[in-house]
Write a structure and sequence with these properties.
mainly alpha, globular
């Protein structure tokens, strides 16, 4: 093997090591975001994360600041989601089995009640227009800062704030209507 080939292999090895060190710690986070965005089934979420990792690896040289890696990865994941799933006319909410999303507690009755409340909130959330739903997911479910959301969505910070405020209002109204319907049915 010549010197040129050897140095090229070293560069590729260094890139892989850097990528693993910087990106892979965010893998669990990416799965959480994918879970919120692609609620169809487990395979869709796994495909979304896998495609995000591949795209991130190919464009890893574009990441200038490692501390911005989470926002950068979220942006890749979100754009991949939009390109892949938005084209489909329907985005049905398929609720996951209880075992997959439950917060485990000691009392089995509380488990069921928590699950029902969680599913009602998710159902109402997924009925919101995408522009509001996405900001709520990023801010309230994934704890991203306004600045990170701004970078991911490519919109001004004022737009993020107004979408979040309006989205929360719409979500509250949907949950209120849902609770009124539940009471009147009894």
């Amino acid at each position: 093997m010549g010197k040129t080939q050897s140095s090229a292999l070293n560069v590729m090895s260094d890139k892989k090591e850097d990528f693993e060190k910087v990106v892979l710690p965010h893998l669990a986070y990416l799965y959480r975001v994918a879970f919120c965005l692609a609620r169809r089934n487990r395979e869709d979420r796994e495909d979304l994360v896998q495609e995000t990792i591949v795209k991130a690896y190919k464009s890893f040289h574009q990441l200038n600041h490692n501390e911005k890696c989470r926002a950068w990865l979220t942006s890749i994941l979100y754009n991949t989601f939009l390109n892949k799933y938005r084209r489909e006319k329907e985005n049905p909410v398929i609720l996951q089995p209880i075992e997959e999303t439950l917060v485990y507690q000691q009392d089995p009755e509380n488990k069921i009640l928590e699950k029902v409340k969680y599913e009602e909130v998710l159902k109402a959330l997924y009925e919101l227009p995408e522009e509001y739903r996405t900001v709520i997911i990023f801010s309230d479910m994934q704890d991203l800062s306004y600045k990170e959301i701004t970078e991911i969505l490519g919109v001004p910070i004022g737009t993020v704030r107004s979408r979040l405020s309006r989205g929360r209002q719409l979500l509250r109204a949907k949950l209120f209507e849902s609770s009124k319907e539940g009471v009147s049915m009894k």
